[in-house]
């Protein structure tokens, strides 16, 4: 069990701004472990909320109120992709089921047959009612003791996919392909047999009636019901990380390219750690490496192509130096990471049963390098601002999760507590100059939002350390 000792409200300089508005007030409380075994553990488990560098920006605004989730997508490019998918389905170009994986996920195509997205219906997730893959059904039937992941809410992978995209956007990481929750219907999806037979029977009855009484029908024409799920935009020209890592192990990239890869790798670390991804391995993140060459002579000619900027002397100089300029080539390396398959994230507690679900990237050599100043300057300002963490990140995640018909506010609040704790650890690790490998060695923290005992109308944060660990820590 997790043990904790309440230390009381922090000093006035750490108290959160109190308001007279209709929202709950917040106060910050720190909890520290009472059963640390030695001084090293005590030092490692010092309460992070006590740090002035963290609490200096923890005053919450006094006019915030959680609004309902807006299901309307405002991204015009994404909306166009959804419309292309719907037109293709209406035109008979159906989504294609992906053979790999343990769930019913589909490649969505446009009218030209080009893959434009990956759709993952909620009811076809690994333990969904209509999962077409028999492996998980056998797993559930024959081995119920190992059924699912005890730290995750079942059948919410589609929300996890969209939630990862929200975190990616809020922090400016740009490594998660745009993902939203949408509703699609297609005959290639896995529907129960009775629904297909019922629709077929209604259609045949309407046709029979229409033959005898022109223009009349018994049933309103209605197709298969739409399925709710996540639609992630498809990325092209990427390779599996496994393949890429083997290639650079045999033929190392130039230093400039490796530095860019390190920055992208650190962004993935930030994402996975905040959402506590329980399924990140080297087969579910992708890498794209582009080498571009720019001829200096061509660039110069392009700049002088406008007659207003040309002179006879300039043209003569270009002709005289034709050979030397043609050999002057600039090579630029562009490298990008795509963090896909984020459906097994956002746990409501740290893994503490059979498996630890470690981050497999922690065993790579890139994880031994401390976080760069570039990533710190990008991430730390947002993570150090409690207003931003609570109102821009946690509240948006809560609004997203609230659209599920099995929404449980208590469980979602526990998920947010894990997110806050992960953010707290990550910010502290960056300030201390730690590496991703050192980050994952830090004890798990949960920052809860609870009502105060004396004034029930107020809420405050409590920090506690995670003392219970899974039996197997390597898998």
TrEMBL record:
PROSITE patterns, per the entry: PI3_4_KINASE_3
PI3K/PI4K catalytic domain location: 92-449
Pfam families tied to this protein: PI3_PI4_kinase
Protein's membrane topology: Peripheral membrane protein
One of the GO BP terms on file: endosome organization
GO CC, any one term: endosome
Record's keyword terms, sorted: ATP-binding, Cell membrane, Kinase, Membrane, Nucleotide-binding, Transferase
GO terms assigned for molecular function: 1-phosphatidylinositol 4-kinase activity; ATP binding
Family listed: Belongs to the PI3/PI4-kinase family. Type II PI4K subfamily.
Protein name: Phosphatidylinositol 4-kinase type 2
Organism: Adineta steineri
């Amino acid at each position: 069990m997790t043990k904790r000792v309440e230390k009381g409200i922090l000093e006035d300089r750490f108290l959160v701004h109190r308001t007279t508005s209709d929202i709950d007030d917040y106060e910050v409380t720190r909890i520290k472990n009472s059963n640390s075994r030695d001084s090293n553990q005590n030092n490692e488990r010092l309460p992070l909320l006590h740090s002035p560098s963290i609490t200096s920006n923890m005053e919450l605004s006094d006019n915030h109120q959680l609004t309902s989730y807006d299901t309307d997508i405002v991204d015009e490019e994404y909306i166009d992709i959804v419309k292309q998918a719907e037109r293709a389905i209406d035109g008979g170009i159906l989504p294609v089921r992906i053979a790999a994986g343990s769930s019913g996920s589909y490649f969505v195509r446009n009218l030209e047959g080009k893959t434009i997205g990956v759709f993952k219906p909620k009811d076809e997730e690994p333990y969904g009612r209509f999962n077409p893959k028999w492996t998980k059904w056998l797993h559930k039937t024959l081995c119920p003791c190992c059924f699912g992941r005890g730290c995750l809410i079942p059948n919410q992978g589609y929300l996890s996919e969209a939630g990862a995209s929200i975190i990616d956007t809020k922090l400016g990481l740009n490594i998660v392909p745009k993902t939203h929750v949408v509703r699609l219907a297609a005959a290639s999806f896995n529907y129960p047999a009775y629904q297909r037979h019922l629709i077929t029977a209604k259609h045949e009855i309407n046709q029979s009636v229409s033959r005898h009484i022109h223009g009349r029908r018994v049933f309103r024409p209605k197709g298969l019901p739409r399925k709710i799920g996540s639609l992630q935009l498809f990325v092209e020209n990427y390779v599996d990380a496994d393949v890429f890592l083997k290639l650079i192990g045999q033929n190392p990239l130039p230093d400039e390219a490796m530095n860019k890869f390190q920055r992208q790798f650190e962004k993935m670390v930030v994402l996975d750690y905040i959402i506590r991804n329980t399924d990140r391995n080297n087969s579910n993140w992708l890498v794209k490496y582009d080498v571009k060459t720019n001829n200096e002579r061509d660039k110069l000619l392009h700049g002088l192509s406008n007659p207003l900027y040309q002179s006879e002397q300039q043209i003569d100089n270009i002709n005289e130096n034709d050979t030397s300029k043609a050999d002057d080539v600039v090579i630029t390396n562009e490298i990008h990471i795509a963090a896909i398959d984020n459906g097994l994230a956002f746990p409501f507690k740290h893994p503490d049963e059979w498996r630890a679900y470690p981050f497999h990237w922690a065993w790579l050599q890139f994880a031994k390098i401390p976080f760069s100043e570039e990533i710190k300057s990008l991430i730390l300002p947002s993570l150090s601002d409690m207003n931003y963490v609570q109102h821009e990140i946690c509240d948006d995640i809560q609004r997203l999760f609230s659209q599920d018909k099995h929404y449980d506010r208590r469980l979602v609040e526990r998920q947010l507590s894990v997110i806050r704790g992960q953010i707290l650890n990550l910010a502290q690790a960056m300030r201390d100059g730690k590496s991703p490998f050192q980050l994952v060695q830090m004890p798990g923290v949960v920052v809860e939002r609870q009502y105060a005992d004396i004034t029930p109308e107020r809420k405050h944060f409590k920090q506690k350390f995670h003392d219970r660990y899974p039996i197997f820590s390597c898998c």
